[in-house]
Write a structure and sequence with these properties.
8 helices; two-stranded antiparallel ribbon; single chain; alpha+beta; three-stranded antiparallel beta sheet; 208 residues
Length: 208
């Protein structure tokens, strides 16, 4: 829609940054001989890795502080509960992925949500790290939290789709490429990551 098209310049910049980091930017140079050398930039990678190591060395701890003097026990319980939840979701790995995105493209997106499958079906807090190209927001505001909506684009495997819609005909949904996309999608096991394969689903969160 119009909002998503307004992100075109930002998406293009992020793509260029990612290509430069992967040393695939030479193809974008005009009038370049294919036989010319394509040197990489080890200083860039070592700098990013060093910065990422510094960030992880300062990985934030979770400490809940009470307001009144008799809140000490509650504060300890909440602190340990939060640490346990973050450890169960593997948040340190997500935090590292977020830091990498911020260093490479200049920004990162982290979306918390309630995962009903955690804690043996009781549910717990979870989080996803998204590629900036897989989110959309209200461009009429400067603060994303004050916008009318926030949308994320997820990529569903065949199992995901059939679980949500048991009667769906996947061949009719994407008749030309359904088999190829579903075959590649089932190879991905990171159900919380932002996969750019499979069937694309849009989740929109409207502000009350």
């Amino acid at each position: 829609d119009d909002n998503y098209r307004e992100y075109a310049l930002l998406h293009e910049k992020c793509i260029l940054d990612e290509e430069y980091y992967r040393n695939k930017h030479w193809a974008q140079k005009p009038d370049r001989d294919e036989n010319e050398p394509k040197p990489n930039n080890p200083a860039l990678h070592s700098t990013i890795e060093n910065c990422k190591a510094d960030i992880m060395d300062n990985y934030p701890d979770q400490i809940m502080r009470g307001v009144n003097g008799d809140d000490d026990i509650i504060s300890i319980v909440l602190t340990e509960s939060m640490r346990f939840s973050l450890q169960r979701m593997g948040y340190k790995k997500l935090f590292k992925s977020l830091a990498h995105s911020c260093l490479v493209v200049g920004t990162g997106v982290q979306v918390p949500f309630w995962n009903k499958n955690l804690a043996h079906g009781m549910g717990d807090v979870d989080a996803r790290v998204y590629n900036i190209r897989d989110v959309a927001w209200d461009t009429n505001v400067t603060d994303v939290n004050k916008g009318m909506f926030f949308a994320t684009f997820d990529y569903l495997t065949e199992y995901d789709v059939r679980s949500l819609y048991p009667d769906i005909d996947l061949a009719e949904l994407n008749p030309q490429e359904a088999s190829e996309k579903l075959e590649s999608a089932t190879k991905s096991e990171d159900v919380r990551g932002s996969r750019r394969e499979g069937i694309r689903a849009i989740n929109i969160r409207w502000r009350d």
